[in-house]
Specification:
277 residues; mainly beta; four-stranded antiparallel β-sheet; 1 helix; globular
């Protein structure tokens, strides 16, 4: 019986590993400056890319947001400026929210102008952003292990746990949130009543999250790995560019075309991949 179980587990692992793959579609030019995050705007059919342009924790005013077409052409390199070290992004209505160390920038998507800065009390390294159907904006703080929420233009603490060592990726769900911990590679489900449950393991540096099916996700790892996680919480590595020192930071995703957009950080480009089953 034990041999049968091990054989079935092996077959399942092999099937999972060969069922999904990423095929490169295009690569942008390298005029970007330390791109950390890509956000695909489903309404505008445009890619927003956050550029740190310096150190990831520096308050230097060098950070900016670029606009790219969905075929990788840089339409406006410095579309929104005056940021420090911008990272994760999300859109509600006509406002782009951008995590920027201890604050969240609100940018008008029609003009690229910063309309407001929301200071998050006690924040040190705001990283990823996700938005829910009600228009709430959630932002992770990798330095403090906390998740904050912005409601009506004001920030407040949403969730905190000692289990979160370096919380990074967030993805709002209908019944809660998917959370990736960069410190341990553990992926969690955070329920709407704030119960944290381990769901899967990818790798240290866990970063961006995209939903690609019912309870199915793609999770990037900053070091250059991209994983597929199925509904049972099993994960398989689809891509590893770590040998070429090409990072895979906070990914964007177009569900209509099953395209993953990967910011390469120090390589100063965005690479698009077709996700295939």
């Amino acid at each position: 019986m034990k041999r049968i179980f091990l054989l079935m587990a092996c077959v399942t692992s092999i099937t999972l590993a060969h069922a999904q793959k990423l095929t490169e579609l295009w690569k942008s030019d390298t005029t970007l400056r330390v791109p950390e995050s890509v956000y695909f705007d489903t309404k505008g059919k445009v890619l927003y890319v956050s550029n740190i342009d310096g150190k990831s924790d520096a308050k230097d005013g060098n950070g900016f947001i670029s606009k790219l077409s969905t075929n990788g052409k840089i339409e406006t390199l410095m579309w929104a400026t005056g940021l420090d070290a911008p990272k994760g992004m999300g859109v509600v209505g006509t406002t782009l929210y951008v995590a920027d160390l201890s604050r969240v920038a609100m940018i008008d998507t029609k003009t690229g102008k910063v309309t407001k800065m929301v200071d998050i009390e006690g924040a040190q390294f705001l990283n990823d952003i996700t938005t829910d159907a009600k228009g709430n904006v959630y932002v992770s703080d990798s330095a403090t292990g906390k998740i904050h929420v912005i409601k009506n233009g004001k920030g407040e603490l949403y969730f905190s746990s000692a289990d979160l060592k370096r919380v990074n990726g967030l993805l709002a769900l209908a019944d809660g949130m998917y959370v990736a911990d960069a410190g341990t590679g553990t992926n969690y489900k955070l329920s709407s009543d704030l119960k944290l449950t381990k769901f899967a393991t990818t790798s240290n540096g866990a970063d961006g999250i995209a939903m690609v099916g019912k309870n199915e996700y793609i999770v990037s790892s900053w070091g250059g790995e991209i994983f597929f996680v199925n509904a049972q919480g099993e994960s398989v590595k689809m891509l590893d560019t770590s040998e070429s020192k090409t990072n895979s930071a906070d990914i964007g995703y177009d569900p209509a075309t099953s395209t993953i957009f990967v910011p390469t950080f120090f390589k100063n480009s965005v690479v698009a991949y077709k996700f295939e089953r």
